[in-house]
Amino acid sequence: MSGRVDLNLLLTLETLLNELNVTRAATKLNSSQPAVSAQLVRLRRMFNDPLLIPGARGMTPTPRALELAPRLSELLDGFRAIVQPDTFDPATAQGSILIGTTDATQCRMAKWFGDLAAAAPGIQIGFVSATRLMVPDIEHHMASGHVDIIISRRSAFPDRLHVRPLHDEHFVAVMRWDHPYRKKQLTAKAFAAMQHVIVSPLGGEFDDTTDEILAGMGLSRSTVVSVPSFLVAERILRSTDFVSVFPASLARGMTSSLKSYPLPYAMPKIELAMAWHVRTNLSPLHRWVREQIAQLLSSPWEEAGGSMAQIAW
């Protein structure tokens, strides 16, 4: 590679890695397809690597391109930070941010959107669904701009991402108010004997930590259905005698339809955290939104609406 580097070429490479399509990259760069194709030829010569391989469904990055992506984003974000104004005004800011998280966290964030629209009318928030295919390569999906912020358990994040702890989440057992089980306390034996709905955010899982704990107690449970959404599980619980395990902060917002019990076993708490890529680390817009989210989600769950007001007794 030559000692002189054309920053415009690096910007083109960053855009190509995000879009994986020459035509879309050209549109985003306000350029033409032939011009971007010519720049790709120069980039391949510069790095002595094909970088992007054409295919029927877009372009596939080479291992060298995937290695370059996070370092390239960090470099270009550094240059952007130099030319961006020091002050950030949410009232005039424009932009969109994509967040990957569960519907439980989305529900907890719902109260924020009215304030966001008033304080920052030009900022749009979109939620994207996590899939099994995304999990092994979270960093790549964040580097390519498919998602900007992920809110999940801390243990899910690779070391190269920026991470901010939010709060520890606790869990409760939930069922409909007129469920046949009406005792003041839920025992492990009674819990295991019920039919269960499992909420698996990635979909398709029929056992989780609860099954491991019950097995250690010499118990097992019957799982009837596994769904990726707590809201879908709530609809199922309302019309059946099933039971499920929900985040306590979410269950507290569903007291009109569900009653809850403390779990009859020791469930490890989940450390919820927010992660983002170096690509957006220095962006004033992203930094402001991350701070708003942190303020919203960092309070302990007990403070979000009273102390276990929905407990069955």
| N-end to C-end Cα span | 71 Å
- The CATH architecture category of the largest domain equals 3-Layer(aba) Sandwich
Mean pLDDT, to the nearest integer, reads: 86
Can you tell me the residue ranges where pLDDT is under 50 for at least 5 consecutive residues? 301-313
Radius of gyration from CA coordinates: 24 Å
Main pleated-sheet profile? 5 strands, mixed
- Would you identify the CATH H-level superfamily of the largest domain? Periplasmic binding protein-like II
Number of DSSP-assigned strands: 12
Going by helix content, strand content and strand pairing, the class is alpha/beta
Keywords:
alpha/beta; 313 residues; 39% helix; D-Maltodextrin-Binding Protein, domain 2; elongated; 5-stranded mixed sheet; 12 strands; disordered C terminus; Arc Repressor Mutant, subunit A
In short:
The chain is of the alpha/beta class. Helices cover 39% and strands 21% of the residues.
Structure notes:
There is one protein chain. The protein has 313 residues and is of the alpha/beta class. The chain folds into 3 domains: 7-82, Arc Repressor Mutant, subunit A (Orthogonal Bundle), CATH 1.10.10.10; 95-166 and 273-298, D-Maltodextrin-Binding Protein, domain 2; 171-262, Periplasmic binding protein-like II (D-Maltodextrin-Binding Protein, domain 2, 3-Layer(aba) Sandwich). The chain contains 13 helices and 12 strands. The protein has helices at residues 7-19, 22-28, 33-47, 63-83, 103-109, 112-119, 138-143, 188-193, 209-216, 230-238, 248-251, 278-281, 284-297, and strands at 52-55, 58-61, 95-100, 123-128, 149-153, 162-169, 171-176, 195-199, 222-227, 243-247, 258-262, 270-276. The strands form 3 sheets. A 5-stranded mixed β-sheet has the order 4-3-5-12-6. A 5-stranded mixed β-sheet has the order 9-8-10-7-11. A two-stranded antiparallel ribbon has the order 1-2. Helix 1 crosses helix 4 (63-83) and helix 2 crosses helix 3. The longest helix has 21 residues, at 63-83. The model is unreliable at 301-313 (pLDDT under 50).
